[in-house]
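Late entry, written up from scratch paper. The run itself happened at the end of the previous shift, but nothing got recorded in the book at the time, so transcribing now.
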Amino acid sequence: MLRRLILLPAAASAALLGFTGPASATVTETTHQMKLVETFVDVVPTCDASGESYVITTTTNTHEHITMLDNGGIRDTFTQSGKVSAVPEDGTGPSYTGVLSTWGNFHQDADGSNLGGFTFNLNLKGSDGSTVHHHENGHSMQAPDGTVREFFRCH
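Output as recorded:
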């Protein structure tokens, strides 16, 4: 569940990787979206990514800051937080309501090296009194020679 929220800003940043050659000047763009509503089907998160399908609706506020440097590098930072509800797709099992928060960054240098990181927090309360507390974080980097180093932790 909600891995899409983690990857969405990263995918937007990755699209910027098509930016070729140095720009003539540094360009910065900041965007804010208030009360952004998204609905999708996924699982309530567990560290092993198992679970039943839920219809998930999020209402979040987002902030993203992208800078394309005059040397061809890119910097991107985003924050997204808000409310979430999850209803079992098949109508059985508990429904959940709660809050989520995610933050990430991405840096690409002119030599093609890049690094990025994220953190994702979710706290839910089930209609049956159960609770879900989920946290993920990760970091990855790619050297100019293509060597990749990364770690991800879920708890």
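The chain has one helix and seven strands.
(Scratch paper discarded after transcription.)
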